[in-house]
Design brief:
Helix content is about 50%, strand content about 10%. It is of the alpha/beta class and about 350 residues long. It has 2 domains: about 140 residues, 3-Layer(aba) Sandwich (Rossmann fold), CATH 3.40.50.1970; about 190 residues, Dehydroquinate synthase-like, alpha domain, CATH 1.20.1090.10. The site of nicotinamide-adenine-dinucleotide has 29 residues, from helix 4, strand 6 and helix 9. This is Putative maleylacetate reductase. Belongs to the iron-containing alcohol dehydrogenase family.
């Protein structure tokens, strides 16, 4: 039986392939923009300059100061630069931090955005913006910040470092996993989630010692999977896994993608008894009788951290994390109870493999 559902798609245009960066100019024109400001992190500023040269007169400048967690003071500097340059729109070239800066600008001035993602984090397909001020991160959901156009160019991901490839990929997988069992789940997202998880797992599984490196087939499967998982995050809900990652990131300053990688197997093991249908879908997506163990093995086999201990979380922080997670909980299919949650975090802290 098909259960009742509601489905709302987010209106964004997606260009996917190899060499698609060359199409950014025509896509800017399609958006009706004369000139755009390019955003990057300091690390990717040179790539931003190359894109500016490619765009010629359409480039109004490069703002290369995007930073983790979208600090408001950086956004204010970028906004001043945007106004000074006479740009009419934004091109965000980079990962979730850079795309987050573009969204924070759009939140304030409604500037159209074209995102060119270079990681698998997925912010480009979501109407969600997180911002940090006075060491507090707040998140809001508004269609104002959804990028109008997203250009996925596989070539830009060919040299994504090995650890980031794995952790950013598992971060994406976590979006799809929770979309399957969160509030707002629907059959279309279920299809996308299953396909997205399968594509990413297969691509990460082909990771060699040097990373997927210049293996364009594995890289295109990974980016395709990341897009599908990003749609899941943008249109679906989240649950305990994302709540724990937000609490751990905020309270102990743990790194974003690595924290998702460690928590996913344990959060899924916690919820598994409450979501039998979702588990059937995840078994198909992972090709494993235990999806939680499969996600753990994916990280362990690739040699990335599988414990909160390795990420620098103090063991005596577990009780505090449970307390904060319970203060203002998200929807979750299995009731949130302090003792089992403590066990979940203790297992994640020690890096135990779930059954
Ligand atoms: P990031 O954007 O912080 O990038 C990390 C570093 O890697 C940066 O120096 C960046 O320049 C570099 N980098 C990016 N692509 C590269 C590539 N192809 N090759 C080499 N280096 C590259 O990391 P991220 O994981 O993409 O994003 C994490 C941030 O995104 C977090 O702050 C998270 O909260 C946010 N996020 C937001 C949403 C949302 O919907 N709002 C969704 C997912 C993530």
């Amino acid at each position: 039986m098909t259960a009742p559902f509601t489905y709302t798609a987010n209106p964004s245009r997606v260009i996917f392939g190899s060499g698609t960066l060359a199409r950014v100019g025509e896509e800017i024109e399609r958006l009706g923009l004369d000139r755009v400001m390019i955003l990057t992190t300091p690390y990717q500023a040179e790539e931003g300059q190359r894109l500016a040269a490619q765009l010629g007169d359409r480039a109004a400048g490069v703002f290369g100061e995007a930073a983790m967690h979208t600090p408001v003071d950086v956004t204010e500097r970028a906004l001043a630069e945007f106004e000074r340059s006479g740009a009419a729109g934004i091109v965000s070239l980079g990962g979730g931090s850079t795309i987050g800066l573009g969204k924070a600008i759009a939140l304030r001035n409604d500037a159209p955005q074209l995102a060119v993602p270079t990681t698998y984090a997925g912010s480009e397909m979501t109407p969600i913006v997180g911002q940090t001020e006075n060491e507090r991160k707040t998140t809001q959901r508004t269609p104002k910040v959804l990028p109008e156009t997203v250009v996925y160019d596989v070539d830009l991901t060919l040299h994504l470092p090995r650890e980031m490839t794995v952790t950013s990929g598992i971060n994406a997988i976590a979006h799809a996993v929770e979309a399957i069992y969160a509030e707002g789940a629907n059959p279309v997202l279920g299809l996308m989630a299953e396909e997205g998880i399968g594509a990413l797992m297969s691509a990460i599984g082909r990771l060699g010692e040097e990373g997927m490196g210049a293996d364009p087939e594995a890289r295109s499967d990974a980016l395709y999977g990341a897009w599908l998982c990003a749609v899941c995050l943008g249109q679906g809900g989240v649950a305990l896994h994302h709540k724990l990652c937000h609490v751990l990131g905020g309270t102990f300053d743990l790194p974003h993608a690595q924290t998702h990688t460690v928590i996913l197997p344990h959060a899924l093991a916690y919820n598994a008894p409450a979501v039998p249908d979702a588990m059937e879908q995840l078994k198909r997506a992972t090709g494993s009788a235990s999806p939680a163990a499969a996600f753990y093995d994916l990280a362990a086999d690739a040699g990335v951290p599988t414990s909160l201990r390795e990420l620098g979380m103090p063991e005596d922080g577990i009780d505090q994390a449970v307390e904060i997670a319970l203060e203002n909980p998200y929807y979750n299919p299995r009731p949130l109870e302090p003792e089992p949650m403590r066990d979940l975090l203790a297992a994640a802290w020690a890096g135990e493999r779930p059954a």
